[in-house]
Amino acid sequence: MPRSRTLGSITVTALSDGEGPFFQPRGEAFPGATQAHWAAADRLDPGAVTADGRWWLRFRAFAVRTGDGPVTLVDAGIGPADSLAASWAPVPGRLPAELAAAGIDPADVRTVVLTHLHTDHVGWAGALFPNADHLVQRAELDALELFHPELPARLLGPLRAAGRLRVVDGETPLTPGVRLLHTPGHTPGHQSVLIEADDERLLITGDLLVHAIQLVAPELAYAHEVDPDEARHARTTLLATLSPATLATPHLTAPFTPHPRPGRSCGWGRNWRSNTP
């Protein structure tokens, strides 16, 4: 049974689509990391390193539901055997079976939030969710040259033709207690989802946070960030501002990670990016 967290009347369910080794040595993925960083990260998330020192990562989506209402799906995993991620990810994914195990009919998904357009986050988007609008930041669509060349023809074009591609600009409310935050850097239009209810907070991070080493040292750049400085600013600001909270992550071993951070708590204003750690 998929794991979940409840905040007030909102339930967030972690849906596993697969897992496997990363395609390059982890030292190349985080070139600024020291042995001390790795030792601390491995203590925090021992399931993310294999016996031969490779990075083992999970691929997840998250379902957000208030009561028994319609479902918002955050990200769409690695996809079927012929997905755009097939050249490097452990396809086929198992998201349809995970949805069934969670009691979610794909027809009940009314919104699919794509945190960004990398292939391991869009795999099941489109046809599997016939009643869903798919939300993408405008800045992401303005940078399509950065992504898989088949993405427009395979996904975005059909969604647009069907009237199911919704383009948003910056912070956007979705439902009561749930809103999008524009968290650029990993990609230009990367977005995360913040959920607040009953004095609790949960942040679905997308790839703002891809490995526990970025909890140990949030300033560390990831080699596959389009703008490392912008990504660092977004990550360090959010992790300093969000306290206490739960982090819902697509790639860490545990889908839900408590983030109690000592020191000041700035709260979440409408202009969170103006806050500094």
Account of the 3D structure:
Strand 4, helix 3 and strand 5 form a beta-alpha-beta unit. By secondary structure, this protein is α/β, with parallel strands linked by helices. The chain contains seven helices and 13 strands. The strands form two sheets. It has a seven-stranded mixed sheet. Strands 8-9-10-11-12-13 form a six-stranded mixed sheet, with no helix packed on it. The longest helix is centred in the C-terminal third of the chain and has 14 residues. The protein starts with a strand and ends in a 19-residue tail after the last strand.
SSE blueprint and pairings:
Elements: E1 4-7, E2 10-21, H1 26-29, H2 35-44, E3 56-66, E4 71-74, H3 95-101, E5 109-113, E6 133-137, H4 138-141, H5 151-161, E7 165-168, E8 172-175, E9 178-182, E10 191-197, E11 200-204, H6 213-216, H7 228-241, E12 246-248, E13 256-258
Parallel strand pairs: 4-5, 5-6, 6-7, 11-12
Antiparallel strand pairs: 1-2, 2-3, 3-4, 8-9, 9-10, 10-11, 12-13
